[in-house]
């Protein structure tokens, strides 16, 4: 276990040992370093194969950890959703990490594992089972129950208040914001926008999802990375990705749009943000264990093949736990285990990237997908509609 406060780590270790009734947990080594102390971070990272980072805002606390991971040859995964910071990480470290075979993985929690790995699963199915690429993929957020994380809110506020207006404009308008860094030319994909929409292939009305701006960039980055490996996995000709919240009708989708606008105004306007902070969890605060255990989330996944007579493939992903805390911690853990114990399996798949600042799909592929399923997450394809497929 690693952190900056040895006493707090010792307390958590003792509580865990008692909870799982395993004395061996009480002897897990404790390593300490402050994220602002680069040499100390380096000494900690030199002692491990993989570091899992959960301390955000990452734009504030993450630079030294990533830099030292590359310097020490230690694989890295985090749960950030701060895409401008991810962009800077790619610009600073991708070339060196790729040369050293070090894997730096961002966005390995609820943002953006369901979107990233769900899309990878649908594309893999279309390629392997149908012999076709995908022209359009959808991730549609379904019913769920989740707590509110003070750390996530602080990361969002930090992003809005510290990033340049030009950077935020680029982030909100360009689905290839990250993919371009890996050499992918811009294509026809566009952000979902704030208006409600009827999605014919998905057969549903939908409204905007506030984290689409993060998840869509990661999905396109995965496509860019996977099309540049020893055995390229091309998602499809002019591949596009849309993520929205599914609604029961036009009115429901409109209400989602209105709610998203209100949330954006509260986060974006300093006076409203100051008022809202009085009523929202502070950094370090989050949902109770009861809320975490009784939370759940689900995404409907849809892929339209790029054939002359397109087929529609349907799937889903989800979990019976709170997405932001319980599910996120398990997603990150399985990503770390894949990097640490599944190295030979990852190396045996020529479709995967072998080093650099990567995404979960580009680094973990089917190996990580199976590990997530084994941990209890649902990732499944449910059917094919159209030419040659079941109606």
TrEMBL record:
**What InterPro entries does the database record attribute to this sequence?**
NAD(P)-bd_dom_sf (IPR036291), Saccharopine_DH-like_oxidrdct (IPR051276), Sacchrp_dh_NADP-bd (IPR005097)
Task: Give UniProt keywords alphabetically.
Answer: Membrane, Transmembrane, Transmembrane helix
Q: Which GO terms describe its cellular component?
A: lipid droplet; mitochondrion; plasma membrane
> Per its UniProt record, what Pfam families does this chain match?
Sacchrp_dh_NADP (PF03435)
For this protein, the parts annotated as crossing the membrane are 244-270
Give GO BP annotations, semicolon-separated. glycolipid biosynthetic process
Q: What residues does the Saccharopine dehydrogenase NADP binding domain cover?
A: 4-104
UniProt lists the family membership as follows:
Belongs to the saccharopine dehydrogenase family.
Q: What's the protein here called?
A: Saccharopine dehydrogenase NADP binding domain-containing protein
